[in-house]
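Box 4.2: Ligand-aware structure prediction
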Amino acid sequence: MTMIPNPVVEDVTEAMKSHPEYSDHTKVFQVTDEDSGLEARIFIHSLVEGRALGGCRRWEYTDDAAWAADGLRLSRGMTRKSAVAGLPLGGAKAAIKHGNPTMGMMRAFGKAIDMIEKQYGMTYITAEDVGISEELLVEAKTQTANVRGITPEETGVWLAGGDPGPFTAYGVFAGMKVAAKHKLGTESLEGVSVAVQGLGDVGYYLCEFLHKEGAKLFVADLDQGRIDRVVTEFGATVVAPHEIVGMDVDIFAPCAMGGVLDSSIKAKIVAGSTNNQQKDEINNTESKMLHEKGVLYAPDYVINSGGLISVFYEGEPADKIMAMIYDQVFGVLDRIFGMSMDTNMDCATIADDLSRKMLSEKQYAPMAQRQAA
Ligand SMILES: NC(=O)c1ccc[n+]([C@@H]2O[C@H](COP(=O)([O-])OP(=O)(O)OC[C@H]3O[C@@H](n4cnc5c(N)ncnc54)[C@H](O)[C@@H]3O)[C@@H](O)[C@H]2O)c1
């Protein structure tokens, strides 16, 4: 018989305030469950209409400060991403301190989300992140409705939700078109050379959209099977992994690992899905370097927000959500690129300011306050 989970949820916000990454979080909760051995933290950076969404990751953090730093930084990033995605959501993240969470831990985690909603009037919506499978999420969903990222049942119509890769890729494609408008003087990507680094869940679909548009594809991956697939299906030209970043092409599309932006970039545009493309996001050092070189950089959390939009609209017809993603990413980047041109400021700094502005235009009210009103 499955036991009803009984985790302890503590508000540890005060204790987090001295952490260098704290940056005005709304709440941080510590979750412990003796029966399953769960140790987790739920970081809520901001709430919009009482809600915040952000994935749950698992990691064997070796020390407390690293655990806090990861969660605080990621949940702050989710605030910016939700804002530029135009979603009525604040930013949050959860981090389970364990290399291999069990089903029991996930049930306790789901129960904690439910308790936070009932006791604090804050809706934290969880989803997949590093190391958390759909199977684990299904277990959390036995205790709370606030779980996204579970593949909708087959209805014969393609629905948003489940795999976010095609949705993220379509947003990147929209971002490339608006970047091309500003930098190359045309929205068409026909004949435009694109170097795609990483041919996984996003990179593959991006190549498909680009191939249909008639772009010239150069690709690199560490996995031969993934390379073969895009060569066969889209006629891409293969490049060595160490050469792809510095290729002299129109667009460089990073779709692999973070910290990729460096002075070797020769492309006219950088537009890809990779998270945390800059090594120094606090000072936007790499974005400034690219701006000085005349490279148009599409800030990562703006151009890769399509996946988040699809997760939020889980269960809606995919065609409708694809169109929404195209308009949102195109529109926000159009503003950012235009402002960069007008002010001679780098695109990441402008995106950070714009995300704060977009967030402040939304209303924040914890659910308990709204219900009492
Ligand atoms: N999946 C999404 O919807 C989504 C949403 C937002 C952001 N992102 C970000 O986009 C990036 C790609 O995501 P994904 O889901 O496609 O990941 P993935 O793991 O499916 O694919 C990544 C690919 O990059 C390859 N790779 C790794 N290092 C490489 C290197 N040095 N050179 C060339 N190829 C390399 C891997 O072999 C793999 O095929 C990640 O940074 C991810 O955080 C993804």
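In the box above, the bound molecule is nicotinamide-adenine-dinucleotide. The first strand starts at residue 8 and ends at 11.
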